[in-house]
């Protein structure tokens, strides 16, 4: 992998309504470059359908600095699509993705580059300040990682973030994947290239409120699960077989107890109703999981792009 005076580092920043944060982030990245004088820089902001002055700010930075590039989506397509667009537009020998809300510390970029130079194709930022988050976010994060790692063939460490460095061959590997519903945090584990992790303390937001709210995180969790989890399909079959056998055994056992031991103790209608409700609940769960896969397949068959670009600078 090339390093040195003729190498370029690309910074990809997905943003959504971050007009008050993009300038401080830009200044922080520029300050970091004093430690990386041997690398040319490329800073790519991807505006994921902002409704404030974010795009005007990006355009202003472009007029000030030719190394800045901007991609503006036609509407909000989601953070993963913004990351995908940025990675696809990046020309660097290594690409670093960083959030636009100042919670990811740009000061770690030189350490990431050092780990890349040491032979790692992927350098992940791992935040250690989960306790600072509010209870709803901590609870949903805990449930997501527990559920995901239970059913997925490719586990993800809790505390993983989108603050990552990817070598050029990793970026090319991502781009070569034909799937539309990409989840890069998972794919970075799946591709299997040499990797390293760097811990950091997540900061408070620079300004404003997060546009990626809990309601926007549910589609992300759904994308993550259906893009990786093959175990649910097998588990449904196994659970169905076990429940079928168990249902037969229990039914005959209860009938035996009812007619040969204590006729009055067990009401047949009550037992039957309980089994019907229980089995219907399991069926709904199974159909729900299968529906997620069907939705994912439907979207892949549609072959629609993951995003539509309105304009670039």
Automatic annotation (TrEMBL):
<keyword id="KW-0472">Membrane</keyword>
<dbReference type="InterPro" id="IPR050256">
    <property type="entry name" value="Glycosyltransferase_2"/>
</dbReference>
<feature type="domain" description="Glycosyltransferase 2-like">
    <location>
        <begin position="10"/>
        <end position="172"/>
    </location>
</feature>
<dbReference type="Pfam" id="PF00535">
    <property type="entry name" value="Glycos_transf_2"/>
</dbReference>
<protein>
    <recommendedName>
        <fullName>Glycosyltransferase 2-like domain-containing protein</fullName>
    </recommendedName>
</protein>
<dbReference type="GO" id="GO:0016757">
    <property type="term" value="F:glycosyltransferase activity"/>
</dbReference>
<feature type="transmembrane region" description="Helical">
    <location>
        <begin position="235"/>
        <end position="257"/>
    </location>
</feature>
<keyword id="KW-0328">Glycosyltransferase</keyword>
<keyword id="KW-1133">Transmembrane helix</keyword>
<keyword id="KW-0812">Transmembrane</keyword>
<dbReference type="InterPro" id="IPR001173">
    <property type="entry name" value="Glyco_trans_2-like"/>
</dbReference>
<keyword id="KW-0808">Transferase</keyword>
<feature type="transmembrane region" description="Helical">
    <location>
        <begin position="269"/>
        <end position="293"/>
    </location>
</feature>
<dbReference type="GO" id="GO:0005886">
    <property type="term" value="C:plasma membrane"/>
</dbReference>
<dbReference type="InterPro" id="IPR029044">
    <property type="entry name" value="Nucleotide-diphossugar_trans"/>
</dbReference>
């Amino acid at each position: 992998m090339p390093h040195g005076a003729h190498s370029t580092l690309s910074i990809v920043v997905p943003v959504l309504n971050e007009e008050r944060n993009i300038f401080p982030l830009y200044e922080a990245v520029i300050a970091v470059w004093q430690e990386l004088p041997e690398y040319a820089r490329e800073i790519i902001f991807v505006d994921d359908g902002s409704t404030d002055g974010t795009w005007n700010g990006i355009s202003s930075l472009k007029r000030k600095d030719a190394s800045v590039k901007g991609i503006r989506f036609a509407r909000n397509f989601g953070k993963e699509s913004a990351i995908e667009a940025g990675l696809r537009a990046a020309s660097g020998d290594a690409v670093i993705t960083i959030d636009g809300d100042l919670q990811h510390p740009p000061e770690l970029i030189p350490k990431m580059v050092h780990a890349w130079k040491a032979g790692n194709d992927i350098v992940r930022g791992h935040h250690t300040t989960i306790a600072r988050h509010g209870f709803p976010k901590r609870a949903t994060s805990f449930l997501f990682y527990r559920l995901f790692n239970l059913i997925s063939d490719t586990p993800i460490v809790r505390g993983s973030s989108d603050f990552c460095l990817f070598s050029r061959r990793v970026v090319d590997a991502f781009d070569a994947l034909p799937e539309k519903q990409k989840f890069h945090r998972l794919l970075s584990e799946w591709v299997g290239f040499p990797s390293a992790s760097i811990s950091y303390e997540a900061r408070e937001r620079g300004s404003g409120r997060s546009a990626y709210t809990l309601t926007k995180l549910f589609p992300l969790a759904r994308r993550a699960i259906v893009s990786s989890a093959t175990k649910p399909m097998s588990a449904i079959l196994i659970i169905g077989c076990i429940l079928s056998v168990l249902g037969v055994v229990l039914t005959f056992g209860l009938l035996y107890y009812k007619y040969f031991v204590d006729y009055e103790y067990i009401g047949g209608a009550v037992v039957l109703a309980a089994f019907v409700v229980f089995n219907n609940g399991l069926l709904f769960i199974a159909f729900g999981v299968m529906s997620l896969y069907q939705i994912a397949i439907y979207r892949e068959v549609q072959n629609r792009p993951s995003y539509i670009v309105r304009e670039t600078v």
